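In response to reviewer comment 3 from the previous cycle, which asked for concrete evidence that the modeling workflow produces usable outputs, we include below a single protein chain processed end to end. The sequence was submitted unchanged, and the resulting structure tokens are shown without manual editing.
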Amino acid sequence: MKKTAIIYCENHFGTMDGKTANGLIRSSGKYQIVGVIDSTKAGMDSGAVLEGIENGIPMFANIEDALLNLSSVPNQFIYGIAPADAFLKEYERNVILEAMKQGMNIVNPLQEFLTDDEQFVQAALHYGVGIEDVRMPPLKKDLHLFSGRILHIDTPIVAVLGTDGAVGKRTTSVILEAALQAKGLKVAFIATGQTGLIQGAKYGVAIDAIPSQYITGEIENEIMKAYDDENPDIIIVEGQGALSHPSYISSSGILKGSRPGAVIVQHPPMRKMLGDFNFMPMPTVKSEIQLIENFSDSKVVAITINHENMTDQEIEDVVVAYENQLHLPTTDVLKHGSDKLVESVLAAFPQLANRQKKALVN
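The workflow returned the following structure tokens.
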């Protein structure tokens, strides 16, 4: 039975910085989400806010409001914001301490580790609760350098990259995973960020918390664990940031460590400046594709659209324009589904057809 959890996302639910909360509302294999705290949307349904479709998960003004309306205290309190500075504000510290006082265990996705903070450590002991620092890296003696083992496997690997942070790479990855499974394929998903790990990904590592010399080795190691444990038909690797982004090295590590045969690129056409770096203009999807293919041996096989600030007609127009100009299948998986992505992946890896046939026979 899943542990219950409430997500804290004050003033950010449904926005770019609320991506951890947004992702958990869309998909959570590990926890049963019972509510979201965001006083600016209190009383609303979180599904209606995020997707326009109610999901029965309510929004609350604060912890007191949540506990007054829920039938029991949630097991977990998840900090669901992904701020650029990655540090808690003073009032947020007090909110987390209140959650601990109410008997909730803390799930912390920030680079600021609460288990290194004496106030939080003492509070956890006093109230008998736990703290999980999701981004806490393994000890250096347990980290992996790139070994080259991945060079000797023939399992198709697809990476879902993007043109910026928080454009929907993880969401597209999860939707593609489900779609390929529905085709009878055995799929392994490799999470590379904190949200995927909180969602319950079996394989993965928060790579932006890993020393740079170990990033490629850690990605390779997670892929090899999936390969050894499950012998999957195909492996999907979640992207982080963007290869072109001046503040991230994540995508270069993903490309080097996973060596994908195919790449899907996610892009928000209406975003003019980089999300947390509004002094830098967004790259074009064409320039990102060229960069990825020049940087690696990987081939971009499809484009996915993040429809923020777009009307349905604008989405349709962009899909047509990209397909005409770039000659790549293009879709918005939340609006139009993932059929084009599945077709692109199957075309990129013809050997998967035999795997499908075997699955159907069995």
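DSSP finds 14 helices and 15 strands in the chain. We consider this sufficient to address the reviewer's concern, and the full set will be provided in the supplementary archive.
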